[in-house]
Specification:
Blueprint: E1 3-6, E2 19-23, H1 30-41, E3 45-51, E4 60-62, E5 65-69, E6 72-77, E7 82-87, H2 93-110, E8 113-121, E9 131-136, H3 140-145, E10 155-158, H4 159-171, E11 175-182, H5 189-204, H6 211-215, H7 217-233, E12 240-243
Parallel strand pairs: 2-7, 2-8, 8-11
Antiparallel strand pairs: 1-3, 3-6, 4-5, 6-7, 9-11, 10-12
Region (Disordered): 224-248
Pfam family, one: PAC2
Protein name: 3-isopropylmalate dehydratase
């Protein structure tokens, strides 16, 4: 049965229309790196587990912890009114619609404003990765208030994050998307840093320390490269944004 199993119910009443940052693996692992960093930086509480159709039936174990966990989990910080959706595995795009339906009712119940993250493949350069935002259900006004740029080209978001955004569009649910230029081949902590500093910070009003994220670029890349390789070798389509071009 599709459900969100809440582990820290005492936090529910403390959350007031919270913002949620989504961290499903995708191009450059931007969302994954950003979500993991938020959970670690704020020592967020393991709030709940997602048992939704479409999530592979696997169990996750962690370093120095004998307890098993499901692969998709929710973390909460009531003081900052913040939630993070963390995933240790890629979600198949054809199963993401089920995940969207499962999470959607929970979004509505807690009046969650989700921020979905996606990388758009660009070759690395010395320039800071460009970031822009999109929204639905009237949420785009938050982007203007936060000074986040509009898209500079026509494009689409595919994969599981695209399915979640599509569901929000279909039901008229307020939702935001942040799209950042990222390395198409390797984990990209710099793109994740841009998402946090230029996107998540101004949208939430929460200051996030990122010095550690930048200093640990090599370590993070090495830790995430196995997941990135598995996604590249898979026939499944991972989360990504891509331009459509003038004549699609």
């Amino acid at each position: 049965m599709a459900r969100i199993h809440v582990l820290a119910d005492e936090l529910t009443d403390q959350l007031d229309s919270p913002t949620m940052v989504e961290g499903l693996p995708g191009v450059g692992l931007v969302g994954k790196i950003a979500a993991d960093h938020l959970v670690e930086a704020f020592d967020m509480t393991h709030y709940g587990d997602a048992f939704c159709d479409g999530i592979p039936d696997v169990a996750v174990y962690m370093e120095d912890d004998p307890e098993l966990h499901p692969p998709v989990r929710l973390y909460a910080d009531a003081e900052r009114n913040l939630l993070v959706l963390q995933s240790d595995i890629p979600i198949r795009p054809d199963a993401a619609t089920e995940l969207a339906g499962c999470l959607g009712s929970w979004f509505d119940e807690l009046d969650v404003l989700p921020i979905f993250l996606s990388g758009i493949a660009r070759e690395k350069s010395a320039d800071t990765p460009a970031l822009y935002g999109v929204g639905t259900g009237g949420a785009a006004e938050h982007l203007t208030a936060a000074g986040i740029d509009n898209p500079t080209e026509t494009g689409l978001v595919s994969g599981p994050t695209g399915a979640l955004l599509s569901n929000a569009v279909a039901v008229g649910r307020p939702a935001l998307g942040l799209i950042v230029e990222s390395d198409p081949q390797f984990p990209d902590p710099e793109a994740a840093r841009v998402v946090i500093k230029q996107g998540i910070e101004p949208l939430t009003g929460i200051e996030v320390p990122v010095d550690d994220l930048v200093d640990r670029t090599t370590e993070i890349r090495e830790a995430k490269e196995q997941l990135a390789r598995r996604m590249q070798q898979s026939d499944e389509e991972s989360t990504q944004a891509r331009p459509l071009g003038m004549y699609q």
